[in-house]
């Protein structure tokens, strides 16, 4: 198993939802470590991949995958490949977003960014390797039908219509109205949240069968509200938070003149918007029955978090 990056310790998470999620988060951490252990890769590449992948984090996206899978009546073991694939893609995106040609960040999850630690070329290649590993994990972890639909979903979320397209719009759109800003974050942030939840549903099908016609519609409504609530809160933390709590540089968006929700709406209106979106997500999760309660609790956490 690769060494985990030296840090000041695991993220400090509190509240009843994290009492429920902490054992699951630790299990996700173990699965991610196993995904990059004992592979026939060049050692510098493996070190750079593990450095970014195993840096301390909430593991929000794979936890969404797991909670969606559990809401459908399946368990952690069934969700493992999907959880890992989602976090592999997310970590790749962080490495590339931090590059000098993109957001030019030097701190991520409380550590130097990958390109600061290993150099720009190796960071790019580590991101490429994590991205492609995600689809290997899906292809070898599920039956062909599940692997195919999951790979297509994840590729769409990560590609030109999703994260990559959102990053392009973010880089090339210096000013816009609220609809344009929401479109950027629907692609750049929200698409992977949606895919994470859908992959949990697809994974559950292998053991529980078809979940019924309304479930993906409910999941999509939850994902849309959850993703936007997350981003509005993220913008508020960038405007008002501290580097130590956030684990990354804050205040950088305003310094670069990037458009944010507080910049467009003001701080108080942005807080109200985050709370309204959080409630929309809670309402959607309620349509999943008792199994959706952890998803509802996680939506409440997201809009009240301080990191």
Characterise this structure:
The protein has 307 residues and is an all-alpha fold. Helix content is 71%, strand content 1%. The protein has helices spanning 16-35, 43-53, 60-71, 76-97, 114-118, 120-141, 144-158, 163-172, 178-208, 215-240, 243-246, 252-255, 261-265, 267-286, 293-304, and strands spanning 107-108, 111-112. Strand 1 (107-108) and strand 2 form a beta hairpin. Helix 3 runs antiparallel to helix 4 (76-97) and helix 4 packs antiparallel against helix 9 (178-208).
How do you describe this structure in short?
This protein is mostly helical and 307 residues long.
Spatial order of strands in the largest sheet: 1-2
Q: Spans with pLDDT under 50 lasting ≥5 residues?
A: 1-14
Proportion of strand residues? under 5%
User: What's the mean pLDDT score?
Assistant: 89
Major β-sheet profile: 2 strands, antiparallel
| Rg of Cα set | 18 Å
Find the count of extended strands (DSSP E, 2+ residues).
2
Shape: globular
Number of continuous helical runs? 15
Structural class, from helix and strand content? mainly alpha
- Terminal CA distance reads 29 Å
Helix content: over 70%
Secondary-structure element series: HHHHEEHHHHHHHHHHH
């Amino acid at each position: 198993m690769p060494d985990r990056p030296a840090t000041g310790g695991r993220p400090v998470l509190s509240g009843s939802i994290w009492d429920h999620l902490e054992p699951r988060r630790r299990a996700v951490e173990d699965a991610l470590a196993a995904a990059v252990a004992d592979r026939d890769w060049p050692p510098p590449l493996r070190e750079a991949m593990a450095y970014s992948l195993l840096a301390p984090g909430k593991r929000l996206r794979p936890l969404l995958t797991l909670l969606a899978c559990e809401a459908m009546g399946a368990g952690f073991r069934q969700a493992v490949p999907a959880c890992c694939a989602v976090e592999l893609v997310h970590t790749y995106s962080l490495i590339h977003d931090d590059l000098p040609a993109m957001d030019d960040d030097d701190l991520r999850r409380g550590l130097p960014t990958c390109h600061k630690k290993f150099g720009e070329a190796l960071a790019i290649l580590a991101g490429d390797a994590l991205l492609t590993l995600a689809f290997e994990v899906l292809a070898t972890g599920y039956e062909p039908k599940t692997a195919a639909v999951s790979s297509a979903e994840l590729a769409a979320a990560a590609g030109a219509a999703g994260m990559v397209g959102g990053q392009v719009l973010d880089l090339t759109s210096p000013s816009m109205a609220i609809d344009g800003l929401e479109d950027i974050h629907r692609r750049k942030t929200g698409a992977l949240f949606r895919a994470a939840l859908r992959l949990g549903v697809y994974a559950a099908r292998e053991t529980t069968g078809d979940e019924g016609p309304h479930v993906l519609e409910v999941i999509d409504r939850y994902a849309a509200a959850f993703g936007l609530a997350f981003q509005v809160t993220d913008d508020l933390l960038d405007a008002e938070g501290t580097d130590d709590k956030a684990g990354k540089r804050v205040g950088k968006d305003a310094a670069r003149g990037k458009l944010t929700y507080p910049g467009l709406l003001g701080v108080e209106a942005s807080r109200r918007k985050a709370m309204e979106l959080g409630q929309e997500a809670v309402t959607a999760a309620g349509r999943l029955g008792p199994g959706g309660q952890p998803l509802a609790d996680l939506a409440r956490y997201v809009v009240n978090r301080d990191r």
